Sequence to fold (211 residues):
Amino acid sequence: MAKKSKPKHIAIAGNIGAGKTTLTELLSKHYKWIPQFEDVDHNPYLFDFYEDMPRWSFNLQIYFLNSRLNQLLEIQRGSETVIQDRTIYEDAMIFAPNLYDMGLMSKRDFDNYFQFFQTLRSMVRPPDLLIYLKASVPTLVGQIEKRGREYEENIRLDYLKKLNDYYNKFADNYREGEMLVIDIDRNKFPENDEHLGEIMSRIDSTLFGLF
Fold:
């Protein structure tokens, strides 16, 4: 029997509405990877957060950090390749700083949160491949409206735009490992098989091109 290659950790990063879950589903099916999704349906803070961001921002971010750390520890203990919908970096480098910037999280809470993240970061390995779904705000808004999640109806446009700026800055400065950037304004992978094929061939050459 051929020796099994070392399991890998693939992570998909992208703003709200970029298509992370859809791509996670499509790639997990194609490559037979184990998908790990963000459990938005059972998040006890999400609805409250969109109703009153300053009150619930710290609680929400701690909840995300904890669930993401659990996912990472599970990936590291496992023997299968896992594809993860959203990363621990996005929580700490994008969502929390953005909340602090917008006056929606206090300095005390942000400092406490970020120091906690730095501790956790030293305990886990970065993904073998990060796929960043880059999109303009109009594209994101269109996709959010299309899926019609009730709690997302209250998302402020300035909030989405600032997140996008943080995402692009994060992608420009990402040095933890391999990263593929997919331009979602041009690449319509959910409805276009050719576009999905382009993403797959880029993954193939990045992950398997050396063998």
Q: What stands out?
A: The first helix runs from residue 20 to 31.
